[in-house]
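Subject: sequence -> structure tokens, single chain

Hey, anyone have a minute? Need the predicted structure for the following. Not urgent.
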Amino acid sequence: MIPARYGSTRLPGKPLLDIAGRPMIVRVAERAASARSVERVIVATDDERVCLAVRAAGFEAVMTRAEHRSGSDRVAEVARELVDFTCIVNLQGDEPLISPQTIERAVRALIADRRAQVVTCYERIAEPGEVLDPDVVKIVIDERGYALYFSRAPIPFPRDAVQRYGSLEEALRAEPALLATFRKHTGLYAYRRDFLLEYSQERASDLECIESLEQLRALGMGARIRAIEVNAPTIGVDTFEDLMRVRAIWERGESEERINLAGGGDA
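Reply:
Had a minute. Here:
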């Protein structure tokens, strides 16, 4: 399931922005359809223009209510009717470079871990700027591989290094090895359908509202969120600069090569 909201403060009409001749939402649907573990791909949207573009490309689209607070709430509206499915993958509609193998790994992890209600993904952070960027969501996990917290802030915070150098930016510059302590959250959730429906009935938590991160509601409910590392780098399109980077990758013909190489690493 790919939730797609037309309205965006920084990138109006984001789902329909062009990526190498096709709307971004269609590029994401193509990625999802390429995953072997995916039986059905549905775009859940609040806008008729998105719905028409998706259907014109040969994919399924469903209109949803406009007032949903999060993508997972939008997905849950449609999932309520999908009684034959036990696993629902929520794939963010602004991830046109997502690897199909990443989706497959998340689904396999949810099937294998009976204690997890949700599986999500993360990758290593390679650039200091990503640590400081609030658009890059950071994740910390426990020793068993479950998420402890997600934040737009730099977590875990390297207090001693910051004290030595005066700021986190200087600490990262002086000690590049600090980057290894940070992990970037990837915009994908594999839900057990029953939990997703329960999640959608809960009010948005205070932390969810403060950080504007839907997964904090699940943590607040006591959910176990299994976090798996993937080797396929992604670029979530949150800004015009992100859009330009993604377009450049497509124009260079690198998207399939990136996915194929990363898929081999994920397997």
